[in-house]
Amino acid sequence: MGDPRRADRVAEAIREQVATFLADGVKDPRIRGFVTVTAVDVTRDLRHANVFVSVMGDVEAKRATFEGLGSVASHLRAVLGKTLRLRNAPEIHFKEDESIARASRIELLLAQVRTERESGVEE
Questions:
Q1: Domains of the chain listed by start with CATH number
Q2: Which of 67, 71, 106, 120 is spaced 20 to 30 Å from 61 by Cα?
Q3: Lowest-confidence region among 64-73, 94-103, 105-114
Q4: Cα–Cα distance for residue pair 62/64, rounded to 1 Å
């Protein structure tokens, strides 16, 4: 059997390539807003890759962005196959990662608590 860490190395390389592709090469006008690649999970057989992205923007911008990402997935798969020199490039599945939005919301709530404590208003 092969190297058990290979899937992790391939996942990290895919994360870097997808981030670069989205920053530089994507031409789909539906992909708008601030898109960040947060993580990539690759199956052990390297046939499927779940690419977790965080999209900042309103609900309509997120919906349009994920439609655009779905349409560029096959092109991105071909690009990854060539760049990473993989015999079989993994099928790309984009998933929403809300961790950045959740962290932002937590920061906002903590700031509100600090402000209330400083002003002497406690509930």
A1: 6-98 (3.30.300.20)
A2: 106
A3: 94-103
A4: 5
